[in-house]
Design goal:
single chain, 110 residues, mainly alpha, 0% strand
């Protein structure tokens, strides 16, 4: 990601990651001297199904760390709920399930 752009990736010069950008914004929030980034570019990446990058982790990251507008939040939460497996998990993965549950809890979703 370009320096100062507010977009971050897993490695310098690599592709931008919604998950990493959200984690960085969250970690830097309230730190003295930290620039305030416009997060709208992330919200604009939401797909019609409510997901971000058709990814549970990216969608959960938006709910957890970015305080999206209500319409974005509700659509993202609906996507997460619709992706839940019959056994209550997300992808039969404990980490992913915990991440999605935390995202729904933080977003005060069903």
């Amino acid at each position: 990601a370009a320096a100062g752009s507010g977009a971050y990736g897993w490695r310098a010069g690599g592709d931008t990651s919604i998950f990493v950008s959200g984690a960085v914004y969250n970690a830097l929030q309230g730190q003295t001297g930290t620039p305030t980034y416009d997060r709208q570019w992330l919200f604009d990446l939401q797909r019609d199904d409510g997901s971000f990058n058709d990814s549970l982790t990216d969608t959960a990251a938006v709910l957890l760390w970015l305080e999206p507008p209500a319409a974005v939040r509700d659509s993202a939460a609906h996507y997460l709920v619709s992706a839940q497996e019959e056994n209550g998990s997300w992808g039969n993965d404990a980490y992913l399930t915990g991440l999605c549950l935390e995202a729904l809890l933080v977003g005060d979703m069903p």
